[in-house]
Structures are given as structure tokens and as C-alpha cells.
Amino acid sequence: MAQALTHSDPHIGDRPRPAKNYLNATTGIWSWMSTVDHKRIGVMYLVAVLSAFFVGGMFALLIRLTLLTPSHKLFGKVLIDADAYNRVFTLHGAIMVFLFIIPSIPGSLANFVLPLMLGAKDVAFPRLNLASFYLWCGGAALAVTSMIFGAVDTGWTFYTPYSTTTQNAVGLMTMAVFTLGFSSIFTGLNFIATTHKLRAPGMGWFDMPLFVWGTYATAIIQVLATPVLGITMVLLALERAFNIGIFDPKIGGDPVLFQHFFWFYSHPAVYIMIVPGMAIISEIIPTFSRKTIFGYRAIAYSSVALALLGFLVWGHHMFVAGQSELATVIFSALTFLVAIPSGVKLFNWLATMYKGNISLETPMCYAISFLLLFAIGGLTGIFLGALSTDVHLTDTYFVVAHFHYVMMGGTVIAFIGGVHYWWPKITGRMYNEKWGRIACALVFIGFNMTFLTQFFLGSKGMPRRYYNYLDQYQPLHAFSTFGSWVLGLGLFIVAAYLLASLRKPMDAPDNPWGGTTMEWLTSSPPIEHNFEEQPVLEHEPYDYRPKVKKHA
Amino acid sequence: MSEHTHNPKAEAALYLKTLIALLILTGITVGASYIHFGSGAANVVVALTIATIKATLVALIFMHLLHDKPVNGLIAAAGFVFLGLFLMFTLIDFDSRQDYQPRNMPAVVAPPTSTAPAPAAEHK
Amino acid sequence: MSTSTVDLQHDPHGEHPDDPHHQHHFTTMEQQFDTSKIGMWLFLATEVLLFGGLFVGFGMMQARFPEEFKEAHEHLQRPLGALNTVVLLFSSWTMVMGVLSARTNQRKKLVIYLMITILCACIFLGVKYFEYSHKIEEGLLPGHYYTHHGDKIPNTHGYATFFSFYFMMTGLHGIHILVGIGLLWWIAVRGNRGEFNSSYYTPVDLVGLYWHLVDLIWIYLFPLYYLIS
Q1: d(CA A319, CA A332)
Q2: At A77, which helix (H) or strand (E)?
Q3: Which CATH number goes with the domain that contains C69?
Q4: Domain-located, residue A126
Q5: Which residue has the higher pLDDT, A330 or C150?
Q6: Number of folded domains in chain B?
Q7: What is the mean pLDDT of residues B64-74?
Q8: What's the pLDDT score for residue A75?
């Protein structure tokens, strides 16, 4: 019973570290490139998506720097011209959405953790998992190629008719998105099959950790929505090449139909981004509150409800796009339903923390940031879902601020929290806790400086994606730019101390946070086949009643 | 691997019957296309109903969904349900949008003959 | 959540410990087979939505150009469409018989049924080739390649749009048939080597599912293009 994590076991973390783990079981570049181990693929994905995050983040800083003054001048020189600006914000959006956020949590953290949480040796289809990673690389390569051949200035949404008539590299970018779509499908397909068939003996559906529930709900969307994105990109490319006459109004097409096609995927894609973030929060909060999760089933069901509702509301991106009034009203009404599962989650997390024994370690700091930022992001979504206000706020910085609160304040903050939470498990090393908290505070302050300001900008009428702006907006724009520097500094510190931790010898115990899910059963880092013996589940999830000994 | 009946002969007979049924339905749908059911929409409904019956036969018997684990049928159904949602909401918009046919729209842009030559003329 | 462990060596469900096709992360062959099927069905669901996007586009464009689409339909030959439908339905039957043969250890019958299926697929593509070359001759082509003369409605893009969709949808379907021929050939070769038997026939079953889906899509393409007018 060496593998067992029982509440009476006083020696958690005292077990000698096995000499061989997944990192050093085989060596050489080829052993990584040809690996089918979900842990190694997860690590490769982590490196890949963080690189994309870095590139996209640099573009973001450049956007903010350009908007510092209405003249766009820095030390007397114009930073970038309007044409370049259009390309930069398009690249920022496309890279962040397709190369970073969508694959971020499923590709890296879920890939690493999900089989461990289920007590499985690997995902259901290990080779498909590797194929998914290489498709990501192919998509990234195509996106880089498109940057060389003139880049794209359509915005990440590729709206027609501009995208079907412009001369720049839309074709390459659509092929990049098509490829990345299939990468995402394969990841989702794998997770669904894994969750159905590879649960540990004794683990029923309602014994699964909530992270698995969230990942499963996400995978449903990945599988069912992404093919439509694929066909949309193909149609767009064919419209450009052969004038097939579906989207370009000049040859009988309907540009609103393009928006239906695009948002049928891209709205559910918002839930591909946020649901895994919520899933991480559902793990961190009970662990650091030392309390059984409140409303386990409600949180599990609300993940699936969000996934399904996500398919019914795409028209709220098209309120002023020429969609019929009837459709607009229906989509607006359905949009409000999204508030229900989101609220269910938020209240259950708060109820979990209530009277808990909360310890503010770095992952928990990020989780609390998430609760605040996601609440703001969600509530401002109601403004935009309501028809009468949306007509005024459409395509202003209010929208920009809203979705950054959800995507960055929600998903990215949860992702960084998750990276900290599982860092000891992935690398076998603890990071510097003090710097972790400082950086988290900087990220939180910087984020709010950058984006809370943009709510004001938007409600005052500053349109999104504009290069020029009136002088009266300058103070707010400048404040937002200062905020982006604080945010950038915070993230830089995160990168610095995480990388620094890799230089020291492995010091992480198996279960540094006293977690109750199965990934904490195995060594840190895990051995090649995850567990020495098949773990069996005997108790309900998040059972903290008898206190587990915590790492000092 | 136990989702099938264990009598190969009965199974083969069932497959043959299914094939015959599918061929008969194909005959019916071709025949029905020569009959006018009152409106164009009625003909569409007849043709698509027969197609759906055929597709259901293929899915349930040739693809074994009838005796398979329910999860597989659920996945298949989900594919069609979500496609249905896509079609339904897009149709709601298009049905309630006025002047959907371009020739009924007010001429906001110049007619195709002046701005873009008719496609037929373009490649002579 | 407290846990204990079981020893894999004494797992009562380890039915086929020595099967060469058994992958290490599955406990039993049955679990592995069920997992593969779930994976295949998920893939088929993505195929349904991929084609579905084109069906939705076709429907909307038909609503946009009803007269043109009606007239354009008449360029397609019903008998050829019906012939291809019969060929594909028959190939679906030979496919399912092939799966049954694999499951009942009838190696020779498996190969024969697969070969007939491949033959049907080739006939289908042959008919399609004949239809395509006829369309190309008449200039009934997608988008700006459309050069057909004698259409009733002048100055419209509707005819070209119809043939854009015709070539996209039947073309994508044709690509799936080509891929299918490759897959069928692959399992025929493996079947001929005697790799499949009643305890392992997963690839035959999965290729069968794929082939039936290709048939199923044609079941919808046929009335939409050839029959409704």
C-alpha cells in the first residue's frame, strides 16, 4: 500500500523520490519529439503556448504604447503607422485566441493532469495526442509564414467582405486557423474518450474531480463546434480564390452569413476558453480553503450547461450587423441564461471559502483575483447582452474591456494560477512563494489599471480598433498604457522566478498543498507510467474532513 | 465486444433486408420527385423525410447503433442536434429578414453589370 | 478522497494479457475496443458538422436564389445520381458483411467483401468523373469559372453559386471516397495476412463506420441536388 494516500498517513512527502521519472526516463531530443507520454506532450504544449503568449503579449504592449499619445509619437518619432497598427492588433488577437488561449489549459495543464486525476496511465489515444501537438506547431508555422507574406489586417474575426477582397495574407492565416482547429478537435476527442473509459476503478462520474468535469465540458464544445470553424475557413479561402459567391455581396453572397458561420464556432469558443479556467478554480479553492467543495454537483452540471448554452447565443455578436430583429431578440434573451450557470459557480466557490481555513498561497491569490475579475467580466456582459445598451456599446472599448476581463482576467489568471498549483508536480520543484505573491499583486493591479480604464473609454465612445483618437481620450489611454507596463512587469517576474526554480535541485514533496485528488498520489515529478500501482477510489471527492498533513 | 447478437446468420439476413429496404426507399424517392405535391416545399419535405428514414436505417443497423453502447448513439445524435441548432437559428434570422433575395433589395450599390461584369462575361 | 490500490497482476478483468494489439494503458481488450469506438464516433460527429456547414450554406443560398437554383438543378442527371446511390448503398452492405466476416473469423470472405466495396467505390468515382467532365464541357463551373450560356435569368450570380456548392459538396464527398478506398485497401491487406479475428477486428469496424458515414452523407446529397426542383 505504498501508493495509498490515506488521511492517517503521516508520511506524505517523506517518501524517497524515485530515481527515474517521466523527465529522465529516456533522454535526447528525439525521445521528446516522438513521445506519446501525455505528461511530456503537456510540457511541450506548455512551452509552446507560453511562447505564443509572449509574442501576443509583446504585440499587446506595442498596441498600448502606440496609443499612449494621439500623435503616436515616442521621442519625436511615429511608432507605427495606421496600416502597421491594423496588422499588430490583428496578430495580437489571432495569436492570443487561436495559438494561446484555446489550446492553453486543455493542451498543457489538462493534458498533464487529467489522466493523473483519473488514475489512468495515459490518455485514450496517445499518438493522436502527439498529432494534436504537431498540428498546433503546423498552425503556428503557417501563422508565422502569413506574417512574412504581408500579415493580416482584418481583425481576428476575418469579417467579409473586407477579408475576401483584401490583398494581404488572409489565405495563409485561414489555413493556420483551420489547422489549429483540428489540433483542438483531437485534444477534445481524446479527453472525452479518456474520461469515459479510463477512470480508476471505483470512480463514478460524480467522483471525478471538478477539473475533469470542466475539461470534459470543454471537450464537448471542441468536438462539436470546431468543425464548423474549419468549413468556414475553407469557404473563406475558396471565396477569395474562386469567388464562389457565398460571403461577398458583390457576387451575390451574404456577409451576415459569414458572421453566423464564424460565431457558431467562436462564441462556443469563448467557453472553450473560460470553462477550463473555471475548472482550475474549482480545484484551487477547496484545496486552499481546506474544505469540501460546496455544491459539487451544481458546479459539475453548470460546466456542462455552459458548454451547451454556449451554442445558443452566438447571434449576440451580430446585433448591429444586419441580422433580423426577431433573431436579435431571441439571441439577446438566450444570452441572459448564461448568467445562471456562471452565477451558480461563483456562489458555490464563495460558499466553499466561507468558514474555510483559507491560506493565501500563490495559487489561491490567483483564484481570488479570478473571482473578482470574472465577476466584473461577467456582469459587464449583461450590459452587452441587453439590446438597448449594446447598440451604443458595440465596437467600443467597453467590449474590449469586457472580453479582456473574461479572457485575461478569467482564463489567463486561472491558467497562471494552475501553472503555480501544478508546478511542483510538473517540475518537481517549489517556486519562490514571496515573489509569487508580489507578482500576483502586480498582475492584479496592472490588469485593472489597463482594462478598468477601458470601460470608461468605451462608454465615452472610444471605438475599438481605431488608430486615431480625439485628444480628450488621452488621459484614459495613457493610464491604460501605464497599467499595461505594470501588468507586463508582473508577468515578467512570474517568468523569472519560475525559470529560476528550474535551476535548483528537486525539492517538491509529492503533495505540497495537501490536495485530495489523485495526481498528488504519485511522486513529484511523476514516474513514466504515472502510478506504481493502479489507484482505486474509495471516498467522495474533496474530502477534507480529517485534515491532511500539509507541507510546512 | 458483446454488443452484437451472437447469431451470424440472423445478422446477415438482417443486413440483406436492410439493403433491400434502402433500395426500395431510393426507388420511392426518385419516383416521388416526379410527382408534384402541391408546393416546392412539400417536395423538399417528402425527399428529406425519406432520406432521414434511410439515414436512420444505416445508422441503426449498418452502424450497429441499435445494439451498441448508448454513448455512441448519444454522440451521433449530438452531431445532428447541434447541426440542427446551427440550421435553425440561421433560418430564424433569414426567414425574418426582409428582402433576402438580392434582386428584391434596393440598389444600394450599382448593379453587377456596371461594377463587376457578369461572371459569364468575365472569362471570354 | 482516500484511496487504496489493486495489483494489476491479479486483475480478474485482464482477459487478453498476451494480445499483441493490447496497449499498455488499457486494462482489458474490451475497454480498448470500446474506447476506440467512442473515439471514432466523436470523429464522425465532427464530420457531420463539417459537411453540415456546407448544407447550411447551400440551404441559405437556395433561399437567396430560388429560381436560379431550380433551373440549375436541371443540369444534373437524375439517373446517374440514382445509379450512384444504388452503388453506394450496395457497397455499404458489402462493408457491413465484411465486418461480420472479420468478427466470425472468415478471412477469405472478409477480403472478398472488401474488394467488392472498393470496386463499388471506383464505379462511384467513375460515374462522378463522367458527370464532372460533362459539367466542365458546358461551363457549369463554380464561381468566376462559370461560363454557361442560355440561362433564363440575366445578370445573376445564382447559377455560379449553385455550381460552387455542387462542386464543393460532391468534391469533399469524393475526397472522402478516395480516402475510404485507401483505408479499405489497408484493412484488406491486413485482413489477407490474417491479422483480424473475433477477438481483434477494431480497424475493420472503424473503417466500416467511416464508410457508412460517407454513404449516409450521400443519402442527403442525392435528393438535395438531383431530386428537389
Answers
A1: 9
A2: strand A77-78
A3: 1.20.120.80
A4: yes
A5: A330
A6: 2
A7: 94
A8: 85
- Tell me if A90 sits within 8 A of A176, measured CB to CB: no
Q: How far is CA B36 from each of CA A74, B32, C227, rounded to the nearest angstrom?
A: 73, 8, 12
Q: Is C13 on the interface with A (CB under 8 A)?
A: no
DSSP summary character for residue C5: E
The pairing of beta strand A77-78 with beta strand A534-537: unpaired
Domain of residue B74, residue span: 69-98
Tell me: the pLDDT tens digits for A338-368? 999 999 999 999 999 999 999 999 999 999 9
| Residue that has been written with the C-alpha cell 461577398 in this structure | A248
- The confidence score (pLDDT) of residue B36 equals 83
Q: Do B97 and A323 touch (CB under 8 A)?
A: yes
ipTM above 0.90, yes or no: yes
Q: Give residues with Cβ within 8 angstroms of A344, minimum separation 6.
A: A295, A298, A299, A302
How far apart (Å, rounded) are the C-alpha atoms in residues C23 and C27? 9
In this model, does residue C104 exceed pLDDT 70?
Answer: yes
**CB proximity list for A199: less than 8 A, separation 6 or greater:** A118, A119, A120, A208
Suggest the residue from A183, A231, A250 to mutate for an interface test with chain C (most C CBs closer than 10 A). Answer: A231
Cis peptide before A106 (omega within 30 of 0): no
Chains that touch C (3 or more CB pairs under 8 A): A, B
A-interface mutation test, from C5, C32, C172, most A Cβ less than 10 A away: C5
Burial (CB < 10 A; 0-12, 13-18, 19+), residue A549, is: middle
User: How far is CA C18 from its chain centroid?
Assistant: 34
CB spacing of B72 vs C48 below 8 angstroms? no
| Last residue of one domain, picked from the residues B27, B49, B67 | B67
Shared-domain flag, residues B61 and B92:
no
Q: What is the DSSP string of A418-470?
A: HHHHHHHHHHS----HHHHHHHHHHHHHHHHHHHHHHHHHHHTTPBTT-S---
Contact A443, A416 (CB under 8 A): yes
Contact A126, A160 (CB under 8 A): no
Considering the entire predicted model, what is its pTM?
A: 0.92
| Separation CA A359–CA B30 (nearest Å) | 72
Q: Which helix (H) or strand (E) holds A222?
A: helix A210-242
Rg (CA), chain C: 23
Task: Tell me if C1 sits within 8 A of A541, measured CB to CB.
Answer: yes
Q: How far is CA A405 from the centre of its chain?
A: 12
pLDDT tens digits, residue range C141-177?
998 889 888 888 888 889 999 999 999 999 999 999 9
Kindly report the three-state secondary structure assignment for every residue of C142-189.
CHHHCCCCCCCCCCCCHHHHHHHHHHHHHHHHHHHHHHHHHHHHHHHH
Q: Which amino acid is at A302?
A: S
For residue C142, say if its preceding peptide bond is cis, omega within 30 degrees of 0: no
Note whether A503 and A435 are within 8 A (CB). Answer: no
Q: Domain of A381: which CATH number? A: 1.20.210.10
Gap between the Cα atoms of C7 and A50, Å rounded: 39
Q: Does C63 touch chain A (CB under 8 A)?
A: no
Cell of A113: 493532469
Domain presence at residue A33: no
In a domain? residue A204? yes
Q: How are beta strands C3-6 and A534-537 bridged, if at all?
A: antiparallel
Among candidates A138, A366, A174, which has minimal Cα distance to A258? A174
Cα A94 from chain centroid (whole Å): 14
Q: Please provide residue C5's backbone torsions phi and psi, each rounded to the nearest 5 degrees.
A: -130, 155
Contacts of C199 in chain B (CB under 8 A): 1
C-beta of residue C184 within 8 angstroms of C-beta of residue C114: yes
Q: What is the count of structural domains for chain C? A: 1
